[in-house]
TrEMBL record:
This is Pyridinium-3,5-bisthiocarboxylic acid mononucleotide nickel insertion protein. Keywords: Lyase, Nickel. Its EC number is 4.99.1.12. Belongs to the LarC family. It comes from the Bacteria. The keyword Transit peptide does not apply. Signal peptide: none annotated. It catalyses: Ni(II)-pyridinium-3,5-bisthiocarboxylate mononucleotide = pyridinium-3,5-bisthiocarboxylate mononucleotide + Ni(2+). InterPro entries: Ni_insertion.
Length: 397
């Protein structure tokens, strides 16, 4: 499957991430057209090549056409995203990143997610950076994100509340469980937006995965001039997923008094926190009351974060935690061309043999809506293009 590795030797920020995605093949015209679907105005995009300590990189930023930028809360940003005509994947990913950022800001300021008001991160540039990242990942077909340890810098940074130590409080909150380091380089190298992107998107931290085949190296430039190149290096390539078993945790709780409208929001927050799976089951509770069982499957290192999220965002007073094993077949994603556009297809293998082929539903849906063609016809067309792979499945039965 397609993947990227973020080499954060000089930190990461929202505009560095966008710059790297542009350098990796995201057309600026596509980014501009998709961002135009948001109800935002009075800004323009800056996109140019620069050189940082001898390294050519893509510099991206947002320039405001008016000096005043309103303070927004999470609900304001959520409405801007939800009312747009962006794809479902982009909306969910962007809202998940902002949700995590909101939770960090709320904890730092001692308030709730609903009441926290963003200043720097509520401005247009942060909305563009986060939504733009989701747009870029979708366009490039990225399904997995890996990263190095983060170089956070040192010293102090000036923000709306005054001078703050590096990493800034919200950044430090977001970096829990993420490897990072600081050295003699002065300045804020990892911004809250950059930390939120990493915390929400990255599946594994460490060296470049041995199973990753690099196809392109891209650079996104930061705004500072340092003793080291102020760039984010991104390796774009494919990763062969191996069949493997792994330990996991199941977190469960039963509820009969939670407003049903909240369940969707909680599920989004849990997926943004790294849950493998989240699902709801109707149950009959004590006193014959109908209720709902919330089940979350997570990796053991995410346990504390997920339990805290469930206890604070739902009406339950306790959870059950169970150990479980999970097993995943080797997976890869290929792209199939149709007369109406490309569709991603997920392939599952066991012992080197193909056992399943599944066209990406959202890709088929987008084509069906755009060209007014029955969805089942698109699905059948894609499977027809995969005839050779289907024959491989038949041979294994």
């Amino acid at each position: 499957m397609k993947a990227i590795y973020l080499d954060c030797f000089s930190g990461i920020s929202g505009n560095m991430m966008i710059g790297a995605l542009l350098d990796a093949g995201l057309p600026i015209e596509h980014l501009r057209a998709e961002l135009a679907k948001l109800d935002l105005s009075a800004y323009r995009l800056i996109d140019k090549d620069v050189v940082k300590k001898g390294i050519r990189a893509r510099y991206f930023n947002v320039e405001f056409r008016q000096w005043f930028q309103p303070s927004r809360n999470f609900s304001d940003i959520q409405k801007i995203i939800e009312k747009s005509s962006l794809s479902k994947r982009v909306k969910e990913q962007a809202e998940g990143i902002f949700s995590r950022l909101a939770a960090a800001e709320a904890k730092v300021h001692g308030t709730s997610v609903d009441k926290v008001h963003f200043h720097e991160v509520g401005a247009i540039d942060s909305i563009v950076d986060i939504v733009g990242t989701a747009i870029g990942l979708e366009y490039l077909g990225i399904e997995q994100v890996f990263a190095s340890a983060l170089h956070v810098g040192s010293g102090y940074v000036k923000c709306s509340h005054g001078l703050m130590p590096v990493p800034a409080p919200a950044t430090a909150e977001l970096l829990q469980g993420i490897p990072f380091y600081s050295d003699k380089i002065k300045g804020e190298l990892v911004t809250p937006t950059g930390a939120a992107l990493v915390a929400s998107l990255v599946q594994e931290f460490g060296a470049v995965p041995e199973r990753m085949k690099t196809e392109r190296v891209a650079y996104g430039a930061g705004s500072m001039d340092l003793d080291i190149p102020n760039v984010l290096r991104v390796y774009l390539g494919t990763v062969q997923m191996e069949a493997k078993g792994q330990r996991a945790k199941l977190v469960e709780t039963n509820m009969d008094d939670l407003n049903p409208q909240i369940y969707g929001y909680v599920m989004e927050r849990l997926f943004a926190a790294g849950a493998y799976d989240v699902y709801l089951t109707p149950v009959i509770m004590k006193k014959n009351r109908p209720g709902t069982k919330l089940t979350v499957m997570i990796s053991p290192d995410k346990l504390n974060e997920v339990v805290r999220l469930i206890l604070t965002e739902t009406s339950t007073l306790g959870v059950r935690i169970l150990d479980c094993d999970s097993y995943h077949v080797a997976r890869e994603t290929v792209t199939v061309d149709t007369p109406w556009g490309a569709v991603r297809v997920k392939i599952g293998r066991l012992d080197g043999r193909i056992i399943n082929i599944a066209p990406e539903f959202e890709d088929c849906r987008t084509i069906a809506e755009r060209h007014n063609i029955p969805l089942k016809a698109i699905h059948s067309c894609v499977l027809g293009k995969c005839q050779v792979l289907i024959e491989g499945i038949v041979e294994t039965k």
